[in-house]
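Example 9 (inverse folding). The structure is encoded as follows.
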């Protein structure tokens, strides 16, 4: 029993070391699931709704917060978000959003993605990425 407890503690320490070093690609499937659930638990999200997704971004594996995550967090913390503008400038799609929390605190943020040479579904996905990319805190 003591050996099993030590083994679990060692696994947890190894997992946390990889996470702290930003080495998510080195996590095995079991460790990725554990990390995913730990992140959900830490911010009060339901992992069954799949609020995050593992994505490869510029050669690095990241845990990306999807729209489900922002919606759940908005509900939990009483935050409303309004898109103030959408513009194209120099082949870049730009979204500006404003947020207000239940205490009346306001903030604005910008999300931007390049749309050069994009059309159809790729263009639509890039535009949606810009909208979900804005981080209002």
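The amino acid assigned to each position is listed next.
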């Amino acid at each position: 029993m003591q050996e099993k407890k030590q083994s679990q503690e060692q696994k947890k320490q190894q997992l946390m070391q990889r996470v702290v070093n930003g080495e998510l690609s080195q996590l095995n499937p079991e460790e990725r699931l554990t990390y995913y659930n730990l992140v959900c638990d830490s911010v009060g999200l339901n992992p069954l709704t799949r609020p995050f997704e593992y994505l490869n971004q510029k050669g690095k594996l990241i845990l990306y917060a999807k729209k489900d995550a922002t919606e759940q967090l908005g509900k939990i913390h009483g935050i409303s978000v309004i898109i103030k503008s959408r513009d194209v400038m120099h082949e870049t799609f730009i979204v500006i959003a404003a947020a207000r929390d239940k205490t009346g605190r306001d903030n604005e943020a910008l999300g931007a993605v390049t749309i050069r040479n994009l059309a159809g579904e790729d263009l639509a996905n890039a535009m949606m990425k810009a909208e979900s990319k804005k981080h209002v805190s």
